[in-house]
Amino acid sequence: MMHGPIPADRFLAYLTSPEIAALPDRGRAVVVLPVGAIEQHGPHLPLTVDSAIVNGVLGRALEWVDRLRPEAAIYALPPLHYGKSNEHLDFPGTFSLSAATLLATVMELGESLYRSGFRKLLILNGHGGQPQVLEIAATDLRVKYADLTIAACFVWRSADYKPLVNPAETVGMHGGDAETCLMLAIDPDRVHLQRAVVEMPPTTGDRLGIKGPLARAWRAIDLTQSGVIGDPTAATADRGEQLLDLLGHNWAEILLELYDRAK
After folding, report:
1. 37-51 confidence digits (pLDDT tens)
2. I need a labelling partner for 199 at 20 to 30 A (CA). Which of 56, 68, 104, 256 fits?
3. Is this prediction's pTM over 0.90?
């Protein structure tokens, strides 16, 4: 079914137009737009990783909401599967929008949500190559609509998950341990662990490295020949389930805080 891991009664697209109009206190309800990507993730993971993870974590978060505060009006929109992935275009199977197209798409979806009477929107991002675009969309929507509460957040940043990551992985940025563990928990049939390779770029320590406050721009092909940046070989479904529950529980708490927030 279209809702995937999202609880069906929290999947906004299953409601009819009159049901949307009749929702009590739409201004207090929280709507989440998950935004992912369809891009290469090395030889062992499918193109769907970022979309699958953001939707899977959101689904777990809404399950936690059902346990903690089932009366809270928190809904998910269908995920936007395509994102700005042009840093991976050297690898086959990357399907990318431009920054301008992604910005316009999210802006227009936000405007549609506002016209439908909703006043709280969380843009939940699953791809590390587009947070700036989504943050700009959130700011521009906030400027346009003074009574709109909106945030654009990276799905990995709700909790400190590093203790659950294999310490042997010194640089894990793409298709590495954490993503592979989560995919083993979310969609194990799509993970080909026997094909996994290790590829970690050297950390030079210079100020214009690939991470840090002065990080330089990079293409994936600058850092990896396989498409992997990390070490996925020791990934397990058990750690994936722990990651999923940790991130999901923390997002549930954040969503409930947003639901309770006056503005």
Report:
1. 999 999 999 999 999
2. 56
3. yes
CA distance 48 to 60: 18
| Residue 261 backbone dihedrals phi, psi, to 5 degrees | -70, 135
pLDDT digits (tens, 9 = 90+) for 77-119: 999 999 999 999 999 999 999 999 999 999 999 999 999 999 9
Please report which helix (H) or strand (E) contains residue 121, including its range.
strand 120-125
Q: How far apart are CA 253 and CA 53, in angstroms?
A: 18
Domain boundaries, the chain: 24-260
Give the Cα separation of 125 and 154 in Å (integer): 5
- Helix, strand, coil percentages (3-state) for the chain, rounded to 5, are 45, 15, 45
For residue 96, give the DSSP letter.
Answer: B
Q: What would the pLDDT profile of 148-198 be if each residue is shown by its tens digit? A: 999 999 999 999 999 999 999 988 899 999 999 999 999 999 999 999 999
Residue 29's CB is within 10 A of a number of other CB atoms, namely 18
Q: Do 250 and 258 meet the contact criterion of CB atoms below 8 Å apart?
A: no
CATH (residue range 24-260): 3.40.50.10310
Residue 119: which of 127, 111, 131 has the closest Cα?
A: 111
